[in-house]
Amino acid sequence: MPPLAETAPASSTCNRVFPKGAWDTHHHIFDLDKFPLAPTRHFTPDSAPLRSLEHFHHQLGIDHAGLAHGLSFGWDISSLEYYLDYFQGTSSAYGVIDLPNVTDKELHRLDEKGLRGIRIDFHFHKCQHDVELQKKWLKAYTERVKIVDWGVQVYSPHPEFFSELTPIILESPVPIVLDHFGGLRTATFHRLIAPDDPNTFDVLNQPGLAAIKALLTSGKLYLKFSAPYRVSEDRSYDDMEALVKDLVKANPRQILYGSDWPHTQPFHRRAKHISIDETEKFVDFDDRKWVLQLKEWLTEDEWFAMLVENPRRLFKYTRDD
Questions:
Q1: At residue 99, what are phi and psi to the nearest 5 degrees?
Q2: Rg (the chain; Cα; Å)
Q3: What are 280-308's pLDDT values in tens digits?
Q4: 45 Cβ contact partners less than 8 Å away, ≥ 6 residues apart
Q5: Which of 96, 98, 93 is nearest to 114 (CA)?
Q6: How far apart are CA 48 and CA 263, in angstroms?
Q7: CA dist list (Å): 253 to 56, 157, 214, 231
Q8: pTM, full prediction
Q9: CB 294 within 8 A of CB 244
């Protein structure tokens, strides 16, 4: 099948929000009738097939898919390989891979396919809340994929850990890609998770922010502006503005856009004690409204860098499209 830019209907070019060559660096596809979920998954997503992703990307004017392998598939990346073939070399991906058992030959084969990174599943490794274990796995993953010069994608709900993770990231032989605003908080989100805190929350002086900005400045860390509903409870997302501008100021060359489509539930909103086989609905989120708001907070150069230049550099993409 042809790439995204060639399958877009003519009407979509009049309404596109993004510039030509734009990337969405974080989204998932759940073709559940084709690719089974792993028995080790921690939730069961609803269906979100390829055709729906294409429609979503056409609506916004996204030309390149940067797939984040759904953690619910476990180590089975057959779906990821299928989508990379489908997009005919115009997409890229980060996969969840069986680190102890993958061979050098397999890594090189996947690199030829279009994979450009590996995801660490902190939930699987039981280290979401353990900085020492995060250090251990971050070292292991970065060392393993340096043979193919891949990035390592992480998400931690503890931005305060990055002060301790900084030496490992600075010494990493490959880039680190941090999802969802690095788990940094807005005031509305802080009130939700710390309702008894009597202090006024200062978004620009919160734990972890200085360390993350320093890593952005160093060029060793990329940060995704993705899933604002994971860090804000203000459904207008006005309280994101100061944080967005502060992070971009640290280094506009290290910021990426990710839609997080089809918008799986954030951990703090995920229903507890439900059966693993019970289907979880997606977040109701207005992508167009959010990206138009985000655009207002950035300069034209910052907007273009986030959507085109930075992902091309990260994914080592050289085609002129």
A1: -55, -45
A2: 19
A3: 899 999 999 999 999 999 999 999 999 99
A4: 28, 30, 32, 37, 70, 72, 262, 264, 279, 280, 282
A5: 93
A6: 10
A7: 26, 24, 13, 22
A8: 0.94
A9: yes
C-alpha closest to that of 83 among 103, 57, 113: 113
Q: Which structure tokens are listed for 320? A: 């002129």
In the block, residue with structure tokens 């690199």: 111
- Residue with tokens 């004690």, as numbered in its chain: 273
CA dist., res. 34 & res. 40, Å (int): 18
Strand-by-strand arrangement of the 64-68 sheet: 23-27, 64-68, 92-95, 115-119, 151-154, 176-178, 221-226, 255-258
For 61-84, write each residue's pLDDT tens digit. Answer: 999 999 999 999 999 999 999 999
Q: What is the DSSP string of 192-223?
A: HH-TT--SPP-GGG-TTHHHHHHHHHHTSEEE
Residue 296 CA, distance from chain mean position: 22
Q: Using alpha carbons, select from 96, 93, 26 the residue that is nearest to residue 255.
A: 26
Residue whose pair of structure tokens reads 């734990």 in the numeric block: 207
Tell me the backbone φ, ψ of residue 190, rounded to 5 degrees.
-60, -40
* Contact assessment for residue 225 and residue 294, using Cβ atoms and an 8 Å cutoff: yes
**Token pair in block for residue 152:** 């390592």
Cβ–Cβ < 8 Å for 39, 61? no
* Residue matched to tokens 């989204």: 27
Quote the tokens at residue 113: 């396919």
Rounded Cα distance, 194 and 64, in Å = 39
Beta bridge partners of 2: none
DSSP for 97-163 reads --TTT--HHHHHHHHHHTEEEEE--TTTTT-TT-HHHHHHHHHHHHHHHTTTT-EEEE--S-GGGHH
Write the Ramachandran bin of 301: left for phi over 0, alpha for psi from -120 to 50, otherwise beta.
alpha
